[in-house]
Design a protein that fits this description.
alpha/beta, globular
């Protein structure tokens, strides 16, 4: 019996089945292709005290009321009830459902992120956390440590409100190259963000109010039923400072392209054939 020839006969159809089968690639972004372009999105408008810097699109749908006083970077533009903003709202609805499906995860007692962080060695590892309502959920520096993983994902689920103080900061660190890292703040009602810096994708059920001079250099603000209020803030999706993925991927690694899979399968079968042939000769 020609073992190598038999294995090759099996390998050829297997190779073509994989090489020309359905295309596989990276897992789809949770945010969706339209929402992914927005740094700020409101359902009932966006108000602003000039000047705010927006690294991405800013818009609202279906209410087209948008205040003035923006400087756009990263190719962003104003999207007042455009088709793109309307599609982004549909993406937002789907994203909220997707993030909620990860829960409830671990409940943070009293909604106190500072105390929970202290109990866990001064940082919070990737995972899903429920954050109950509190007078203030965060007053200090919140360190989110990815443990060196570039697929780290944090889901913070706030069934009602999320409130940060003027002394708060959010820092993402130790996430490898950050290629597929995601950070989501899924807020059932209103998000009130203060402090010098914040990070991540804020997906709010009602209004989002941002204090004066807040910087979000890796994330976005999106309200599904109300407005977003800015006061001389900086909101960017490009993640220039720490490199974690502004698109908020699913946290899964890439799947090899079909041609690569086919070559890998063929190579493996050829190696198996050589081993079987050696055993037959022996």
């Amino acid at each position: 019996m020609n073992t190598k020839l038999d294995v090759m006969k099996l390998a050829v159809p297997f190779f073509f089945a994989i090489a020309y089968g359905p295309t596989q690639g990276l897992a789809a972004p949770i945010l969706g292709s339209s929402l992914d372009t927005f740094a700020v999105l409101g359902q009932q408008g966006v108000t602003n005290v000039p000047t705010s810097t927006i690294g991405g699109n800013l818009g609202s749908a279906p209410n087209a009321s948008i205040g003035a006083g923006y400087v756009f970077t990263n190719g962003g533009s104003l999207q007042a009830n455009t088709a793109l903003a309307q599609n982004a709202q549909l993406n937002l609805t789907a994203a909220i459902v997707a993030v909620n499906s990860s829960g409830p995860g671990m409940t943070i007692t009293g909604g106190n992120l500072d105390a929970f962080e202290a109990l866990n060695g001064g940082s919070i590892a990737p995972g899903t956390y429920t954050v109950p309502a509190a007078a203030t959920n965060l007053t200090g520096a919140l360190i989110l440590n990815g443990g060196g993983s570039d697929t780290a994902v944090w889901n913070f689920l706030s069934p009602s409100s999320l409130i940060t103080s003027t002394t708060s900061t959010v820092i993402v660190e130790n996430v490898g190259d950050g290629a597929h890292v995601g950070l989501y703040w899924d807020v059932g009602s209103q998000a009130t963000l203060n402090g010098s810096t914040f990070e991540g994708n804020v997906l709010a059920g009602t209004a989002i109010t941002v204090g004066s001079g807040v910087t979000i250099d890796c994330g976005r603000l999106a309200s599904s039923t109300a407005q977003v209020t800015l006061i001389m803030d900086t909101i960017s999706t490009k993640c220039a400072s720490n490199g974690f993925d502004q698109g908020g991927r699913t946290g899964t690694t890439g799947v090899p392209e079909p041609g690569t899979l086919g070559l890998m399968a063929l190579s493996g079968l050829m190696m198996l054939g050589r081993r079987l042939r050696r055993k037959t000769i022996a």
